[in-house]
Design a protein that fits this description.
Elements lengths: L1 E8 L3 H12 L4 E5 L6 H5 L2 H15 L4 H4 L11 H25 L3 E4 L1 E6 L2 E5 L4 E11 L3 E3 L12 E2 L13 E5 L3 H12 L3 E6 L10 H13 L3 E4 L3 E6 L11 E5 L4 E4 L1 E4 L3 E3 L32 E3 L10 H15 L13 E3 L5 E5 L2 H6 L4 E7 L4 H6 L5 E7 L5 E7 L3 H13 L5 H5 L9 H14 L4
């Protein structure tokens, strides 16, 4: 029976970084993957495929350049699902190779199969025709989550889909219903609308992406409507069904009945309401670890479960459930497990939403600062003020920084538009060092760049505080 210093379950972002960190510390490490491919949802069904789809849609439709070349600009007239999936598969294949290479270079042993705890330090690994037992001193659970698939939704493999099934579409539909106005639902709604699909987005709350700053949220909803997306806000789906094929055309539609009495129909329905853990499969009852009703694990500040030598990181522990934070959680968990000290995890981390247009934020929103009684002023820069914005053809993007009225410290940064997920890191770095608005005023930025927006926004906010027009 093989014994390891550390066994990691799951090859998603948390598991990858945890295994490599353990190897860097000189430990004997194994990582276990139950699927036939590496990378978890990040690589295969979620983060990268959706972003690759987005980039393909923007390029092939020419949507990202129409502000510069005109509304009729288009790279390809007849875009097929094969065009889009081909780009995704190329990106996914590259990531599989990269992850596998990283494991090999760091002497991380890759074990294929399903992991099941038989005891506190004992794992059974099962495959189709065999099984084996291994032991370890430390474990990290990076098993991630899967899309929630409630029983009342009749999922199939062709027109009632969850996000994991989305790339299985065999053609671009003319109409689509998206249920759920979270990150996944809005990203796919944007992509499909860009491709010319008539999209209806249903969200039970009165706005989508409710964690955003309200001004950014309002701007984004305007962009969605402008791109042809119909928003049904404050609406809940009561019943979903696939209709009988039209006897004349053979067309099959999906129908969504709303609690308000409305009936919506489309060729395809994408259901993106919540995600569910997979902890039931792990045999955690054999080691005394509990999980909640959504199969998520509770951990302490060091990412330890209630069993000291078993750690968890990534989506399986809940918020914020970002690939970026999952990577760092996995690394830090292993550092703690083997006594390699790290500094406290910064609470100043960015959110990136790869919608069309991009959205990103770091720090507090205006609503949070108001509720906390913190005096602030908002400084705003629009892309139409920037030469780079004109060169990119983006006249609607904006950057907003929130400035403490007394200390001028940067309390939050919010961006929407081209490159939002990139330029947010400038604000993140300044906030991490408790910098204030004068940093942006007193420093030189390359010209022409989107980063200049920080200087303009800082001037705008400080001038408001000085009562200068």
């Amino acid at each position: 029976m093989k014994h390891y210093d550390c066994v990691v379950i799951g090859t998603g972002p948390a598991g990858q970084k945890a295994a490599i960190q353990a190897a860097k510390l000189g430990k004997r490490v194994a990582i276990i993957e139950k699927n036939k491919v590496l990378g978890g949802a990040q690589v295969n069904t979620g983060t990268l495929p959706s972003k690759a789809l987005r980039e393909a849609a923007l390029h092939l439709t020419g949507a990202g350049k129409r502000g510069l070349f005109g509304e009729s600009y288009r790279v390809k007239q007849n875009i097929t699902i094969a065009d889009l999936v081909g780009v995704s598969q190329k990106v996914i294949q590259h990531e599989w190779e990269t992850i596998h290479d990283q494991f090999q270079r760091n002497n991380v042993e890759l074990i294929w199969g399903k992991a099941h705890f038989e005891g506190p330090n004992l794992l059974q690994i099962t495959r189709e025709t065999e099984s084996e037992m291994i032991t370890a001193d430390k474990f990290l659970l990076g098993v991630g989550t899967k899309p929630a698939k409630p029983d009342h939704v009749p999922f199939n493999d062709h027109n009632i889909l969850c996000s994991d099934m989305f790339l299985q579409l065999n053609k671009l539909p003319k109409t689509m219903i998206v249920v759920g106005g979270g990150v996944i639902g809005t990203e796919y709604a944007c992509i499909m609308a860009t491709l010319g699909v008539r999209v209806t987005l249903i969200e039970g709350r009165n706005n989508i992406l409710g964690f955003l700053d309200s001004e950014i949220c309002e701007a984004f909803q305007y962009f969605l409507r402008r791109s042809g997306v119909t928003l049904r806000l404050g609406e809940k789906v009561e019943h979903i069904k696939e209709l009988e094929a039209n006897p004349d055309t053979g067309e099959v539609l999906v129908e969504a009945q709303l609690e308000s009495g409305k009936t919506l129909r489309g060729e395809t329905l994408l259901y993106t309401v919540g995600r569910q853990g997979v902890c039931k499969q792990l045999g955690l009852e054999n080691v005394g670890i509990d999980f909640d009703d959504r199969e998520r694990l509770k951990v302490n500040e060091h990412y330890q479960t209630n069993v000291e030598h078993i750690y968890a990181a990534g989506d399986v522990i809940g918020f914020p459930a970002l690939a970026s934070t999952s990577m760092e959680q996995g690394r830090r968990a292993i550092c703690h497990a083997f006594g390699d000290p790290t500094e406290g995890f910064s609470k100043v981390f960015p959110f990136g939403i790869y919608s069309i247009p991009e959205i990103s934020m770091v720090g507090k929103t205006e609503e949070q600062l108001t509720n906390d009684g913190i005096p602030y002023e908002a400084g705003v820069a629009t892309y139409k003020e920037l030469a780079r914005g004109q060169l990119l053809g983006d006249e609607f993007g904006m950057l907003k920084i929130l400035i403490h009225q007394d200390t001028h410290e940067i309390l939050g940064v919010h961006a929407i538009g081209t490159g939002a997920t990139e330029i947010i890191h400038i604000g993140q770095a300044v906030m991490a060092h408790k910098g204030n608005a004068s940093f942006f005023v007193d420093n030189v930025f390359n010209f022409p760049t989107l980063a200049e927006a920080y200087k303009i926004a800082a001037y705008n906010g400080l001038n408001k505080l000085k009562h200068v027009a």
